[in-house]
Amino acid sequence: MGIVMVKLKVMPVSPEVNKDELSAKIKETVESMDIICRNIEVEPLAFGLYAVFPLIEMEEKEGGTEPVEEALANLDDVESVESVEVSLV
C-alpha cells in the first residue's frame, strides 16, 4: 500500500459559519484519525458562501477516503464533503 494525497471539498451549512473555526475543526478531526493535514484553503464561491479545501496525506487502504469523509460530514456546521482530487505519492 502507498501514500495518497487527497484534496477534499467541505461545504458549510451557511455563510455565517466561521471559516477559521470550521478549518480548525476539520484539522482536529483529520489529525485525530492519524491522518496528516498538509494544508487548508478557503475559497469564496458566491453570496458570502465559501468552500474549505483540506489537503490530507493518508495511507492507501480499503475504504479509501470514506472514513475521513464521513467523520467530516458528521461535524456540526458541515453540509457536505467530497473528494475532488486523489493522487498516489
The helix content, as a percent range, equals 10-25%
**Strand coverage percent:** 35-45%
CATH superfamily: Ribosomal protein S6/Translation elongation factor EF1B
Overall outline:
elongated
Radius of gyration: 13 Å
Major sheet: 4 strands, antiparallel
What structural class results from the helix and strand content? alpha+beta
CATH architecture: 2-Layer Sandwich
The domain count comes to: 1
Top-tier CATH class: Alpha Beta
CATH topology: Alpha-Beta Plaits
Span of the ends, CA to CA: 11 Å
Order of helices and strands: EHEEHE
Output mean pLDDT.
95
- What is the number of helices? 2
**Count of β-strands:** 4
Fold and architecture overview:
- It is a single chain.
- The chain is of the alpha+beta class and 89 residues long.
- It has one domain (3-88): Ribosomal protein S6/Translation elongation factor EF1B (Alpha-Beta Plaits, 2-Layer Sandwich).
- 25% of the residues lie in helices and 45% in strands.
- The chain contains 2 helices and 4 strands; from the N terminus they run E-H-E-E-H-E.
- A hairpin with a 5-residue loop joins strand 2 and strand 3.
- The chain is elongated, with a radius of gyration of 13 Å.
- The model has no long low-confidence stretch (mean pLDDT 95).
- Keywords: Elongation factor, Protein biosynthesis.
- One of its GO terms (molecular function) is translation elongation factor activity.
